[in-house]
Design a protein that fits this description.
2 copies of one chain form a homodimer. Chain A has helices at residues 19-28, 41-47, 92-95, 97-100, 116-123, 170-181, 192-212, 217-222, 224-243, 252-262, 269-275, 282-295, 301-320; strands at residues 9-13, 32-36, 49-53, 58-60, 66-68, 79-82, 105-108, 128-141, 144-157, 186-188. Chain A is an alpha/beta fold. The first copy, chain A, is globular, with a radius of gyration of 19 Å.
């Protein structure tokens, strides 16, 4: 990373609902932001960046943007925000090296229990941070983001599962401050695993059930049977986290239900993926926490069942395509 | 019931996939069989009874049939075969009294853990037997039955949950022999509860998952994720049965999976109900065994989850109607 008196530069790998929103907010504040785009670059070159947000709409004209369609042409940036779906992580060997260079860090804004591990395999240990995003946001077209609700990122240093929490490093604080200066609701955490489990408490029931029951979050929370089921699933996640050494707050289940109740009606990312015929993030959101729980001697029968149901649906959706 | 040297007479309440098949087979053999029909009586008066069966097709001409459309006009019969959906059991006060009279018995061929209890409430204790049907059969039109596979009835005397198994009574043996004489694969059991748990081992996973995952039994058994899930659900049912004092054979899960693998592709009755917008038999097949397990100190988390998912689907299917 550049010396502390220089502004940070950013690479955005994956300019979708998450990367497009946060990258756009950083660029709007004047940061040097390089967007790597897989598709739709011509539309963005024509129309620029358009963000409709509960925090205020804004546009970035095309001539103000650094757009790239080849990962090898990305300049070395201080912070590479990785915001592609974790199902695409087999591409990281192509996507990360140029942008992160010799001294950049990766900020992994992906779903799952430890999506950072895939980035560590490419750029090496000690250069990867992770963040959990709590937001309702969708990409409606290339360069066009609709940010519906919430927006917090809880970010921290990634550590291996068998290591103690990293605490809040100087670079973590610097990146957090930079995000806050761009208007992003960023919070540094000294224990990324705790934040990851906390987010899975929402992701596992609401991503999973929205696909299994073909339902919006509002339908799930407003129907007594599914709301009770979501709470039971959250209880399993909380107990598994505790077995893995991460104690979630006692009111976490009730708070998560409350947040979901107050949320705008929203299609979870997994439901959007399923409906669009894309692969769902089952490995990160289901298989990884199930494996961690099992290793810690905890069982999550409902989570396992939901994972199996989604596996069935994934197989047959694919089959029908 | 009539003296043992007289032939038994039968009332069929619910001439659908089950009552239509077995009632038709009894009538074909020459028994006096009275069919109570809720709808479609005119079609049957025109075309008679038509059964396509793996055991041989047959027809019964209209003039040979005793058809009734008013339960009050039913004659007193020795055996009233109750084969309506258990979701209609609130009608039993109208349906049973005339047919069973003072000395008839009810043979309850319904789904669930103890569907007989509703009949006991109407005709009194000591006059109700129950049977578990293991068959693939559908009503395709009034008086037209398609019997696809299997066909066994395991029947026994009903006893209250806190009483010991009844053993094989004379009347149970007499009814069983009569059914066998009509070509029905009937087996008397001294422990109806054991047979009920044994059947639930299939009904709970395959009725439930066929609705939750919108799948045929063949898709469920051929997809590794759902086959493993079905086996896990069966394990919960087996453990709950054991807690309730009914020990299922150790190879019951493997045998049930095998039978399902060899079964013709089949839409479960619950899936047919759901697709037709009818109420599903959730009370008998899910709520009753869950309550029995809980009372015995056993938990069935996957069964409970499936019940909650079906409750959600039932609520929203209704909502959409």
């Amino acid at each position: 990373m550049s010396p502390s008196h220089h502004p940070l530069s950013y690479a955005i790998i994956g300019a979708g609902a998450v990367g497009g929103l946060y990258g756009g907010m950083l660029a709007k504040r004047g940061a040097e932001v390089h967007f790597l785009m897989h598709s739709g670059i011509d539309e963005v070159r024509q129309h620029g960046w358009r963000v409709e947000s509960v925090a205020g709409d804004f546009r970035l004209p095309p001539e103000s943007l650094h757009l790239h369609n080849d990962p090898r042409s990305m300049p070395n940036c201080d912070v590479t925000i990785l915001a592609i779906k974790s199902t695409q992580n087999h591409l990281l060997g192509e996507l990360l090296p140029a942008a992160t260079g010799q001294d950049g860090v990766v900020l992994c804004l992906q779903n799952g229990l430890h999506p950072e591990a895939d980035s560590v395999a490419i750029v090496g240990p000690g250069r990867v941070l992770g963040g959990c995003c709590f937001l309702c946001s969708n990409k409606v077209a290339p360069g066009q983001i609709r940010h519906l609700d919430y927006g917090r990122i809880v970010l921290g240093e990634f550590t291996a599962a068998d290591q103690p929490p990293a605490g809040i490093s100087d670079r973590l604080q610097r990146i957090t401050d930079d995000l806050i200066a761009a208007g992003i609701d960023a919070v540094a955490t000294g224990d990324l695993w705790l934040a990851r489990w906390r987010k899975l408490m929402w992701n596992i029931p609401f991503n999973g059930l929205s696909v299994a029951l073909d339902a919006s979050t509002k339908q799930l929370i407003d129907t007594p049977e599914s709301a009770r089921l979501a709470a039971a699933i959250m209880g399993e996640v909380r107990d598994a986290a505790a077995a893995c050494g991460r104690t979630l707050p006692t009111d976490a289940i009730e708070k998560t239900l409350d947040h979901t109740r107050q949320m705008v009606p929203y299609d979870s990312s997994m439901r959007l993926d399923y409906r669009a015929g894309r692969e769902m993030e089952l490995a990160g959101i289901f298989a990884a926490p199930l494996a961690a729980a099992e290793q810690a001697g905890a069982t999550m029968p409902r989570v396992e069942m939901l994972h199996q149901q989604l596996g069935f649906l994934q197989a047959h959706r694919r089959h029908r395509k």
